[in-house]
Amino acid sequence: MATVGIVGAGVAGLHLGLALRAADVDVTLYTEHPLEDLAGARLLNTVAHHHPMLERERALGVHHWPAEEYGYAAHHHYLGGAEPVRFTGHFTNPSCAVDHRLYLPRVAADLADRGAKPVVADIGPRDLARLGAQHDLVVVASGRGPLSGLFARRPEHCPHDAPRRLLCAGLYTGVRAPEPAGVGISVAPGHGELLEIPILSRHGPVTALLLENEPDGDLAGLASLPYDDDPARFHRAVLDALAVHHPATRERVEEREFALTHPLDLLQGGVIPAVREDYLPLGDEKFALALGDAHVVVDPVMGQGANLAAYSAAVVAAEIVTDTVYDEQFCLRVARAREEVLLAGSAWTNLMLDPPPRIPELLRALAADQRRADEFTTNFDHPDRQWRLLATPRRQREFLAGDRAEGDRRTTWSIQRSAAPY
């Protein structure tokens, strides 16, 4: 029986472990801290899980928060400027957002119940050779701390060496939900974006506001504005930002009720997007395979991070259970199997971080075409499909021209990957 050591207990590591245990593969999960400690930790992210990821959760038996009850099925777009534009796109199937401080400990408990061996240890690069001697394969699913940068960047897929957005994410009360329930995506040209996300937290259903601020824009200071020193000043700064740059959200705020749900429900900083090498040798014909944030990191502006991680974990699990030798040939096969979706998710996100003039043109065209607005929205589930539509000006023109019937396009895209369809 194969034995796999997984370093990191985020979405990627947990989903991989669950899929491997379902195939009776021996799994040891290495975590820096006990996951139950997350309940009292600072906000980790404001991620949404899209339909393909929810389907994987159902298959793995960890879909504890049904999208039919906790989810949403629309994106409400606002493009600011001299002539503001609004439109709504509808998903074919709902998405769902759950605070990962609830999600990760619950899923980790499921994994432990199914026989994975949890080990709390501070694993660094020098420990990987030792793990390689203990396991047939080591999978590094953590891109933080001492393992940050372990796998070399692939320059051709890394256009940024610094954060393109300065982030200010928090959970708030006092924001009335849009109709129908959905995520708000507001674009303030030259200043950044706002993602307004209905999310289930320890406080119940609340609203996550993720302000993605351009470093040279009016709102950049929100990423470093302290909350604890003067909560009222912080709240006023956020409200002012919404009023000036994201009015589609501000108009639904009840000012007297608007507040951060807890001082720890705030996350500020930035993300450096990166695509890294798929694997590295550990000696003695053993290898470490990159997964999740150790492999591909995207800015959260398009909501792809956890979804790409879950997809990649499914591909890796499928390759592990259909092989018995985890050598370089195995690593190269994994790289080929997952590359299209992961690179598409990264490239699409980077395009939206540095949008050429054709992107505002796209949004204005979608506002006048409900069918394509819905297709664009549903393709948040499928970044490879989205990238095929938007990768070049010609492809975008073809998408908007709509000369091909929608049925023809869907038929082309219905071909499923045998290992792990996105």
UniProtKB/TrEMBL annotation:
Q: Which SUPFAM superfamilies does the protein's record reference? A: FAD/NAD(P)-binding domain
InterPro entries in the record = FAD/NAD-bd_sf, StyA_sbd
Listed GO MF terms: monooxygenase activity
Keyword Oxidoreductase on entry: yes
Q: What does the UniProt keyword field contain?
A: Monooxygenase, Oxidoreductase
In terms of Gene3D superfamilies, this protein maps to: 3.30.9.40, 6.10.250.650, FAD/NAD(P)-binding domain
Domain Styrene monooxygenase StyA putative substrate binding: start-end pairs: 143-252
In Swiss-Prot or TrEMBL terms, this protein is called Monooxygenase
